[in-house]
Amino acid sequence: MKKLTIQFIFVFCIQYTLCAYADESKVVALTASVTVNNKLDRDISGYIHRISVPVEDGVQQRLLSVRYKHPEVLKYKRHKRGDTRYVEFKFDVPAQSSVTRSVIFEMELKEYNYKNLPKGTIPYPKGRYIRPQKYIESESPPVKLLSQKIQSSSKSDEERLLAAFQAPQDIIEYRVQSTKGAYYAVIHKTGDCTEYAALFTALARSMGYPARVTSEFLFASRNEFSQPNHHAAEVYFNGRWLPVDPNLAIDSKFGYGFGSGRVSKITLTRDFTWVWSNVWPERFQPHEERPKVTINWKVEIIRGS
User: Fold this and answer.
1) Radius of gyration of the chain (CA)
2) Percent helix, strand, coil in the chain (nearest 5)?
3) How large is the greatest C-alpha to C-alpha distance in the chain, in angstroms?
4) CA nearest to 211, candidates 247, 173, 258
5) DSSP 148
6) Does residue 141 sit in helix, strand or coil?
7) What one-character-per-residue DSSP string does 199-221 give?
8) pLDDT tens digits for the chain (305 residues)?
9) With 252 labelled, which of 7, 55, 220, 258 sits at a CA distance of 20 to 30 A?
């Protein structure tokens, strides 16, 4: 009887583990479609378009494949900042016509909790992720004063970063607005997800912890976008880059917080890196209107709930 019981428990544990894993991950396709509408009476030869590649291998997601079903060659290049890549392709746009090109990024998204993660192996990042920059005014007096208060009342790295994570939730009254940054958030105490992320990042940097802002697609209630609709952050902690979302943490239904999250968003870029850019092949006259370029992003669930 004991042997059968042990076998039953063993089988149940395997089944439970497989079911839990299925609930904790999903595979999605993120499609970026760019359309160039050329109303000119002449062809445009050699138009170049660039699209950022989503974060390829993080705690929360992994890039599985990139598909481009068009005749042009897809080139991969690195951003000058942000530790991510972009793809570049060149095509022609005939006069009085529209041309669309699509790149499909297949992603695996995973639930995560930093308390269950082993120590990472990423080397300590030096340089720009400690220094102040636009919107992340880590050396400004009000940000430094707040970070000093956190350091004096917290003993461990984890306690300090958790306090920096909590600070935007305590200080900022949520209000949709144009990007203002960390300094504005401390002084005026208003902002949206960008200010929540920027303030956390600035506080972390002020205390000596590498941190950066991320641009993301939150698809909890929609799946089509003209650009990323959310900002969060990452901080270097325990040998890895850890996702942090002080804004979504104010509403438990989203399931995101400090080093924990579900599978409802895709991290596209880091450190305010551009989402897309282009290069026009010919010199346009001052009076000549350039063709309109639009880009649409769509998230489709391939596997998982």
Assistant:
1) 22
2) 25, 35, 35
3) 88
4) 258
5) H
6) helix
7) HHHHHHHHTT--EEEEEEEE-SS
8) 434 443 433 333 333 333 333 458 999 999 999 999 999 999 999 999 999 999 999 999 999 999 999 999 999 999 998 899 999 999 999 999 999 999 999 999 999 999 999 999 999 998 889 999 999 999 999 999 999 999 999 999 999 999 999 999 999 999 999 999 999 999 999 999 999 999 999 999 999 999 999 999 999 999 999 999 999 999 999 999 999 999 999 999 999 999 999 999 999 999 999 999 999 998 877 777 889 999 999 999 999 97
9) 55
> What DSSP assignment string belongs to 158-176?
HHHHHHHHHHHHHHPEE--
Neighbours of 238 (CB within 10 A): 14
Q: What are phi and psi of 103, to 5 degrees?
A: -120, 130
Residue 153, SS3 per DSSP: helix
Count of helix runs (H) and strand runs (E) in the chain: 5, 17
The secondary element (H helix, E strand) that includes residue 10 is helix 2-23
Residue 89 structure tokens = 């392709």
Distance, CA of 201 to CA of 77 (rounded, Å)? 26
In angstroms, the Cα distances linking 66 to 52, 56, 142, 225 are 12, 11, 44, 19
* Whole-angstrom distance, CA of residue 237 vs CA of residue 122: 10
Q: Which helix (H) or strand (E) holds 99?
A: strand 97-110
Q: CB-based burial of residue 274 (10 Å sphere; 0-12 exposed, 13-18 middle, 19+ buried)?
A: middle
User: What is the identity of the amino acid at 250?
Assistant: I
213 forms beta bridges with 233
Closest CA to 273 of 134, 88, 70, 172: 134
Token output for 259: 């080093």
